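Summary of Year 1 activities. Much of the first year was spent building the evaluation harness for sequence design. The harness presents a backbone, in tokenized form, and records the residue chosen at every position. We chose the following record to illustrate the format because it has been used consistently in internal testing since the harness was completed.
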């Protein structure tokens, strides 16, 4: 059986279904080819389930501090089975929401393994997709335009396999039926840090091993220092500048033991489980790209500024093109790709102007250049930091840790970057994202009236501080 569509999206994650909805809004006939479930990694194995677990972990930790707020609750217990049930309910609810959106927008969802087939006399244009369904039937889908949105999967260390038991990735961890007593997390990036935070709050003994000199190595150095300080206060062991010896890993007797090196020191580590969190790689296996002229660069699909591959009618978006591997970035790229297909002029965001969030405790979020990046470009910078303990709402909430750091151009007064760690950081960063879109300066942001008491006051205070006019210090 053969079907034709204006636009076919290969992959039903957040980038893919955002592209499909946008195309349908333009009146295009659209199909999504998805081998698993709509929503992809973000909904089923990443963003949503991990944040649901983080919320339960944070509440559990806060309840144990109830006396600080004058609340006596007795002994606080943890029912991890119910934690998982809540997580699963949230995922299922949102999954049904995505399915509803497909029906509402009249988007065909073709479940099965999609593979791009070679051009033929019947389909001379490249990009035709053969969809092999569970019942063995194959549907041939011919698109006017094809959008590749196949996402990514956890990267593993060379020579190391994850068995989902003693050695796991985040894909496995969201489905753990019970918590380990101890865990070694290899990798101190966003995913590793979030898992370290939630597992520790659930009472797991956590050790992070990171080859770089600091956690969240892509963020501003002051953010990394503050996070490591807070993690150490909570009892999370952080080993930076440390490299594990994969040949030393032993998984006998239901635990993991290994050797790691730090400078000239050898460190022996042991835990019930190991969680590998060393980045992600594109899902491109058996996709049939060899049947097109689509090019790869460092294992990712190569695209131009308009998200077109080497074949102009084939686009690629999201994690499979590398760059900023974030759900909201993939969603925007899906919209931008469709806008370009229909002749609109999409707004192109440079990577540093896409908000970056880490949902550990404390939260951190950033947009724009780090201080190091700004200085490396030869910009004369003006720096200001305002602590959350100067903000009434943060103190009231029992979260006075952290700060807001503003980086501005000393000569022009332009906002170059905002970096937050602390109370509601991941919610507050959107104000700076809007400011960068509108090219607002710190002066203009400081003139915005922020309600009192609110967490957002730290934005106004930080923007005043970078002008040397702080009201709180």
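For this record, the design step produced the sequence shown next.
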């Amino acid at each position: 059986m053969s079907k034709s569509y204006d636009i076919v999206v290969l992959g039903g994650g957040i980038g893919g279904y955002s592209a499909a909805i946008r195309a349908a809004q333009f009146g295009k006939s659209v199909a999504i080819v998805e081998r698993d479930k709509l929503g992809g990694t973000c909904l089923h194995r990443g963003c949503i389930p991990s944040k649901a677990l983080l919320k339960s972990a944070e509440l559990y930790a806060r309840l144990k501090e109830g006396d600080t707020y004058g609340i006596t609750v007795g002994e606080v217990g943890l029912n991890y089975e119910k934690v998982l049930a809540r997580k699963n309910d949230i995922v299922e609810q949102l999954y049904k929401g995505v399915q509803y959106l497909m029906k509402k927008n009249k988007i065909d969802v073709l479940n099965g393994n999609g593979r791009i087939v070679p051009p033929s006399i019947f389909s001379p244009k490249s990009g035709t997709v053969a969809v092999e369904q569970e019942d063995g039937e194959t549907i041939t889908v011919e698109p006017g335009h094809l959008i590749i949105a196949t996402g990514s999967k956890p990267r593993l260390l060379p020579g190391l396999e994850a068995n989902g038991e003693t050695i796991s990735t985040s894909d496995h961890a969201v489905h753990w039926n019970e918590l380990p007593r101890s865990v070694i997390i290899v990798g101190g990036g966003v995913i590793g840090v979030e898992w370290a935070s939630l597992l520790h709050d659930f009472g797991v003994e956590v050790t992070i091993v990171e080859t770089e000199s600091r956690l969240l190595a892509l963020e501003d150095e002051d953010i990394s220092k503050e996070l490591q300080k807070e993690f150490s206060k909570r009892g999370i062991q952080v080993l930076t500048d440390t490299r594990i010896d994969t040949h030393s890993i032993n998984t006998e007797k239901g635990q993991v033991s290994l050797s790691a090196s730090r400078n000239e020191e050898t460190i022996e580590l042991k835990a019930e489980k190991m969680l590998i969190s060393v980045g992600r790689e594109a899902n491109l296996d058996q996709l049939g790209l060899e049947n097109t002229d689509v090019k790869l660069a460092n294992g990712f699909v190569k695209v131009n500024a308009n998200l077109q591959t080497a074949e102009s009618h084939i686009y690629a978006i999201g994690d499979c093109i590398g760059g900023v591997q974030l759900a909201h970035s993939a969603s925007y790229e899906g919209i931008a790709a469709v806008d370009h297909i229909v002749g609109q002029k999409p707004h192109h965001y440079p990577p540093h102007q896409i908000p970056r969030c880490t949902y550990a405790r404390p939260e951190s979020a950033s947009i724009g250049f780090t201080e190091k990046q700004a200085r490396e470009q030869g910009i004369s910078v003006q720096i200001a930091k305002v602590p959350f303990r100067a903000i009434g709402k943060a103190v009231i909430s029992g979260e006075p840790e952290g700060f807001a750091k503003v980086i501005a151009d000393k000569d022009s007064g332009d906002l170059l970057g905002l970096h937050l760690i602390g109370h509601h950081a991941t919610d507050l960063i959107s104000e700076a994202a809007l400011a960068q879109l509108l090219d607002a300066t710190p002066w203009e942001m400081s003139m915005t009236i922020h309600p009192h008491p609110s967490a957002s006051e730290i934005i106004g205070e930080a923007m005043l501080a970078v002008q040397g006019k702080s009201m709180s210090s």
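The chain has 13 helices and 24 strands. Quantitative recovery figures across the full test set are reported in Table 2.
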